[in-house]
Amino acid sequence: MPEESKNEGAEDQAQEDKPTRSSSKKNSQKRASKKKKSSSTKSRKRTARPYPASPFQEALSLAEGIHAYASGERVRRLTLFKHLDKSPSSSSSHMLITNSTKYGLTTGSYVAEWLELTEKGFIATSPDSLPEQKLEARFQLAVEGIPPFHKLYSEYKNKRLPTHDVLKDVLLEEDFGLDKPTECVDLFVVNVKFLGLLQTIAGSEMLIPIEHALDEVRKHPLMEEPGNVSSREEQSISPKIGTSKVNWSKTCFVITPIGEDGSEARKHSDMFLHSLIEPALREFDLDVVRADKIGAAGMITSQMLEYVMRSRLAIVDLSYHNPNAFYEMAIRHACKLPIIQISRKCDRLPFDVNQVRTVVIDTSDIFTLVPKLETYRSEIATQARAVLGDGNITSNPISVFFPGFEVTIPKER
């Protein structure tokens, strides 16, 4: 064959092969793109949260604010947050709006110009709603409208509430895509308690049906507002340690009345520490430190003040109205540092701190306390998630009424 014909044939073959290689390359790119997109979609599904990230009571505050400052009508987001004394651009405000929307209380995102109550959100927060209407709307939003919460309610209504491990197993059997089942269970328990659906019957915590709760409200129309816990409830130790090598970002300081060995206050403090606080904070990988680890009981020392001012979290037990506890809590308030407030039910809190959300623990007898231990742990854990959230601004009487007040914490020695 002549050389010219061979060259022409080779060129023709190359032309025929070129689209094939090009097409193959395009197909390969498409497959890679689809695979990447599929992987991305799966990743998003795994991390999607099928429930709000805060208790219903916290989200409710936004809807109640719309009633308080806008008579329940549509309101500009910036105007509302000005009245609420909150920064509209803070991460905690963004979360508040997001969770209020997820619960179905309001419409409008954290970048929307206007926020508005939904129909059920209006009923759930309106001063003019009948008590049974308000309770029913709150139940529909806080439990029935959230698939994982509704599953647990349907499974255990009219039954004794089992351990949290059992509740987690129930959720994991369903395809909810939960990556934090413990958080989900804690929020469910906190919500049903807020609604008054957890009651101690025959020594156990029972999840009562909403129908029963509504009947009770109808029989007693002058009873406290449904879903308002505060109105219903009136409000082995390790060796001593120093502060030279403390990892403050992983420390929780427990401010509590301690008393002498064998005293009622010491037994109370030990029980709260080992049965409530330590189990509730286990998931946060925090070193829980009580005051008697760093100094003599009843004394304010420089080391103790360091723990008060530097620890990432403080849990303040206001039981017995111990003056040192109030003193140390005031320092945390001034420094605008995260606090979880707890107290015995029998100790009525003073007016200047009784508006702060408090985990109220009924210690009247062992038969009342033991059935509720899991619930109290859930309340503490839920508050810990809230105050330890990234960018969360700690709210206390000083930060609310004197937002410009600042304290400079001295550098470590």
The chain-level structural class is: alpha/beta
Poorly predicted residue ranges: 38-46, 228-239
CATH topology of the largest domain: Rossmann fold
Strand order of the largest sheet: 8-7-9-10-11
Mean model confidence by pLDDT: 83
Radius of gyration: 28 Å
* Beta strand %: 5-15%
Estimate the global geometry from the Cα principal axes. Answer: globular
Overall number of strands: 11
Helix percentage:
40-55%
Topology as H/E string? HHEHHEEHHHEHHEEHHEHEHEHEEHHH
Model description:
The protein has 413 residues and is α/β, with parallel strands linked by helices. The protein has 3 domains: 56-123, Arc Repressor Mutant, subunit A; 130-233, no CATH class; 248-401, Rossmann fold (3-Layer(aba) Sandwich). The chain contains 17 helices and 11 strands. A hairpin with a 6-residue loop joins β2 (106-107) and β3. α2 (56-70) packs across α4 (91-102), α6 runs antiparallel to α10 and α12 (264-281) packs across α16 (373-387). The longest helix has 45 residues, at 3-47. The protein is globular, with a radius of gyration of 28 Å. The protein starts with a helix and ends in a 12-residue tail after the last helix. The model is unreliable at 38-46 and 228-239 (pLDDT under 50).
